């Protein structure tokens, strides 16, 4: 079937359905409604849009070279398609770089930006940088709260790519865990009480 013929038939069927129960008595209103329907009121042309291009920030490797980021960030924040892949360079958008520099000054920030613009890296990079720079002591360094389990699961996969892939044993220098209320209430209680998870 030809896709455009299918589209036209679908629209015509929908038009027939919608108009089958329209019984407008006033001729002026009926004329206006029929004109609007004929112009495609119920089936406007498809919206075509471009993904926005986000302003460029800086390469992670350049930030490491300038001493802005810990040396290990150059190994962590790379594009790693597979577990063993050392990866290729990663370039931050300007809003991600601004968030990092704001966090390094000890300032709070709120970031609002479009879908697919890398909001997660705008807080993950500063957290990992802080953990790497801080003295190595056991304990929780950061807590990230997600509104849905699905989002927490997806972010766990992203963290795994950054923090585990590219390391021979799959264990990078920064560890993390995902806890969900449904599954992990007992584990969370022990953790916050300072008792071991076992």
How would you characterize this protein structure?
The protein is elongated. The longest helix is centred in the N-terminal third of the chain and has 18 residues, at 3-20. It is mainly alpha-helical and 198 residues long. It has two domains: 3-38; 56-192, no CATH class. 46% of the residues lie in helices and 4% in strands. The protein has eight helices and two strands; from the N terminus they run ααβααβαααα.
Question: What is the terminal-to-terminal distance?
Answer: 61 Å
- Say how many strands there are: 2
Mean pLDDT, as a whole number? 86
What sort of overall outline do the alpha carbons produce when their principal axes are compared?
A: elongated
Low-confidence stretches: none
Secondary-structure class? mainly alpha
Number of domains: 2
What summary fits the major beta sheet? 2 strands, antiparallel
How are the strands ordered across the major sheet? Answer: 1-2
Oligomer: single chain
From N to C, what is the helix and strand string? Answer: HHEHHEHHHH
Strand content: under 5%
Approximately how much helix is present in the residues? 40-55%
Tell me the Rg in angstroms: 26 Å
Q: What is the number of helices?
A: 8
Please outline the helices and strands.
Blueprint: H1 3-20, H2 27-38, E1 56-59, H3 60-65, H4 73-76, E2 91-93, H5 94-104, H6 121-133, H7 149-163, H8 181-192
Antiparallel strand pairs: 1-2
Helix pairs in contact: 5-6
